[in-house]
Each structure stands twice: as structure tokens, then as C-alpha cells.
Amino acid sequence: MAAPRVTGTAPAHARSAASGRTSWPTGWPATARYAAIAALAALPVAALAAVGWALRLSTLTRFVSDTILVGFKAGAGISVAVTQLPGAFRVAGGGDHFFERLGAHAPGAA
């Protein structure tokens, strides 16, 4: 069984990887520029993490029930999976919203 700290942040890491992939092109013409964009995107996240650590905001997680956390993690995992299905199976993607994407992969969908 994974540690709660790892499972609690796994959907966020998956989303970060997906956003990093969209900002990084397949070619390498302006590598320094894209590295600067990635570093600039990381700065606000690092600042928020530092502020949260300094204010000891992790104690707020004790007030959120395990049921809510399980639901959030399951929803985030399903959302990431539905977003990644077209690329994983090399099929045409769905729409702009979750249910449109899910419907595009359902059996019998046109």
C-alpha cells in the first residue's frame, strides 16, 4: 500500500506532467526558451508550497474526512485517465469536457 503523502499528490503530479508536455514542443529549436517557461511556471508553485509550509497549513488536512479524499482522488484519476486514453490507444479524442471525452470512448459511440 502506498503512503498517504504519495497517493494524495499523485493526481497533481500527473496533471503537472500533462501540462509540462503541452508546453514542451516535439522539436528542439528553442530549448532554452521552453526551459525558461517551465522554470517560470514552477516559481509560483514553489512560492505557494513555501507559504503553506511556513503557515503549517498541512494541519488543515486533518479536518477533511477520508471519504472525501478517496472521492477526490478517484475523480482526479478518472479525469486523467479519460484525458490520456486517445494518446494511449492512438484513437481520435473526445470533446472539450469530461462527459464528451468519456462518451467518445464508450462502446457504440459514433
Report on the architecture of this protein.
The chain has 110 residues and is mainly alpha-helical. The protein is built from 4 helices and no strands. Helix 1 (4-23) packs parallel to helix 3 (66-89).
Beta fraction: under 5%
How confident is the prediction overall: mean pLDDT?
75
Written as H for each helix and E for each strand, in order along the chain, the element string is HHHH
| Low-confidence sequence ranges | 1-8
| Morphology | flat
Can you give me a brief rundown of this structure?
By secondary structure, the protein is an all-alpha fold. Helices cover 68% and strands 0% of the residues.
Strand-helix topology:
Layout: H1 4-23, H2 31-54, H3 66-89, H4 98-104
